[in-house]
């Protein structure tokens, strides 16, 4: 169940600040990846006992939901892109966002994003696709999102992809093409977006 389906109300005067919890979760994920995010580590960051967090969240899954949406909402380039960018520029901005918050693509793979910032992104994608006359705007939005998420997850290995040779006896065509190919995650993504939108 998503945090957005069961938000807990504030139960006491001196309550745990959910925005502070969300931003602490983003910091921990940015610094240490998925394993760094625990109820204990967030409680330590915000200066409360771990048990106090249960007044606002049910589990670490809620922290992932909050961090994912807060990182997107706090990204000024994404906010501007959601309001004003065309679809290719919006997808490039989303790629840059996911490259900044390397854990976000992994979290999206585990938890469907349903927070307000991700809903605004999804809505904008669907509106732009519908305005363009796309026969299946939602399906196209899923394809574009999957392309961007996949590109962001694999982009860090691009230097190794070029550096590590391919055995020409095992994969002769791949080895020949690999030897002369210029690998650019940004260009590959741009070509993929263009192909999906054509």
TrEMBL record:
Q: Where is the HTH tetR-type domain?
A: 15-75
Segments traversing the membrane: none
The record ties this protein, via Pfam families, to: TetR_N
The record's InterPro entries line, in alphabetical order, gives: Homeodomain-like_sf, HTH_TetR, Tet_transcr_reg_TetR-rel_C_sf
Q: Report the Gene3D superfamilies cross-referenced here.
A: Tetracycline Repressor, domain 2
Superkingdom, natural source: Bacteria
The Swiss-Prot or TrEMBL record marks DNA binding at: 38-57
- Molecular function GO terms recorded: DNA binding
Which keywords describe this protein according to UniProt? DNA-binding
What name appears for this protein in its UniProt entry?
Regulatory protein, tetR family
Q: What is the lineage of its organism?
A: Bacteria, Bacillati, Actinomycetota, Actinomycetes, Mycobacteriales
């Amino acid at each position: 169940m998503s945090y957005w389906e069961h938000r807990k109300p504030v139960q006491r005067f001196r309550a745990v600040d959910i925005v502070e919890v969300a931003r602490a979760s983003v910091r921990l994920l940015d610094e240490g990846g998925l394993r760094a995010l625990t109820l204990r580590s967030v409680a330590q960051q915000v200066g409360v006992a771990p048990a106090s967090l249960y007044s606002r969240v049910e589990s670490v899954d809620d922290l992932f939901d909050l961090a994912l949406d807060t990182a997107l909402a706090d990204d000024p380039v994404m906010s501007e892109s959601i309001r004003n960018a065309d679809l290719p520029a919006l997808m490039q901005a989303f790629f840059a966002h996911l490259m900044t918050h390397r854990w976000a693509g992994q979290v999206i793979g585990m938890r469907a994003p349903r927070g307000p910032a991700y809903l605004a992104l999804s809505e904008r994608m669907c509106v732009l696709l519908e305005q363009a006359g796309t026969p299946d705007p939602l399906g196209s939005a899923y394809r574009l999102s999957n392309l961007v998420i996949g590109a962001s997850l694999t982009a860090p290995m691009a230097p190794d992809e070029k550096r590590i040779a391919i055995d020409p006896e095992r994969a002769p065509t791949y080895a020949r093409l690999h030897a002369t190919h210029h690998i650019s995650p940004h260009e590959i993504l741009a070509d993929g977006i263009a192909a999906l939108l054509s």
